[in-house]
């Protein structure tokens, strides 16, 4: 597991979570509930890790909603800060752009 994802899991467990404005917009557009994403982060599967992202370390993870449907979620931690875990965005992965297991981008 990545160090960034471990930190995010600890922060979410401690209820130190923020949802970005973009995150709220994407969640609403996709019909995904914030509560479901936050409550299910412990089941997240790491897809991509960006420890050196300019705005702060972040990860792309595969999660499932309460109906078992896949959701890609970008979680981050602001650069130079210890908290909060920020839900940057979430979306339904496009099967035309991802492998069957939704964990690798198609070339």
Note the main attributes of this structure.
5 strands; five-stranded mixed beta sheet; globular; YaeB-like fold; single chain
Please estimate the helix content.
Answer: 25-40%
How do the strands line up in the largest sheet? 1-5-4-3-2
Overall pLDDT: 96
What is the C-level CATH assignment?
Alpha Beta
Major beta sheet, specifics? 5 strands, mixed
Stated plainly, the CATH topology is called: YaeB-like fold
- Shape category: globular
**Low-confidence residue ranges:** none
Q: What is the terminal separation in angstroms?
A: 25 Å
**Which structural class should the secondary elements be placed in?**
alpha+beta
Radius of gyration, CA atoms, in whole angstroms: 13 Å
The proportion of strand residues reads 25-35%
What's the total count of β strands? 5
Q: Any idea how many domains? A: 1
Q: What is the annotated CATH architecture? A: 2-Layer Sandwich
The run of helices and strands is HEHHEEEE
Helix count equals 3
Give me a quick take on this structure.
By secondary structure, the protein is α+β, with helices and mostly antiparallel strands. Helices cover 25% and strands 28% of the residues.
Characterise the protein shown here:
The protein is α+β, with helices and mostly antiparallel strands and 107 residues long. The chain has a single domain (3-91), classed as YaeB-like fold (2-Layer Sandwich). The chain is 25% helix and 28% strand. The chain contains three helices and five strands. It has helices spanning 3-13, 21-30, 34-39, and strands spanning 17-19, 45-50, 58-64, 70-76, 85-91. A five-stranded mixed sheet has the order 1-5-4-3-2. Strand 2 (45-50) and strand 3 form a beta hairpin. The chain is globular, with a radius of gyration of 13 Å. It starts with a helix and ends in a 16-residue tail after the last strand. 29% of the residues are buried. The model has no long low-confidence stretch (mean pLDDT 96).
């Amino acid at each position: 597991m990545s160090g960034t994802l471990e930190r995010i899991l600890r922060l979410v467990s401690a209820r130190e979570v923020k949802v970005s404005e973009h995150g709220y917009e994407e969640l609403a557009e996709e019909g995904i509930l914030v509560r479901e994403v936050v409550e299910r982060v412990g089941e997240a599967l790491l897809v991509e890790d960006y420890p050196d992202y300019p705005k702060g370390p972040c990860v792309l993870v595969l999660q499932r909603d309460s109906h078992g449907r896949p959701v890609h979620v970008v979680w981050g931690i602001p650069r130079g800060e210890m908290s909060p875990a920020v839900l940057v965005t979430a979306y339904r992965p496009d099967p035309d752009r991802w492998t069957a297991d939704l964990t690798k981008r198609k070339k």
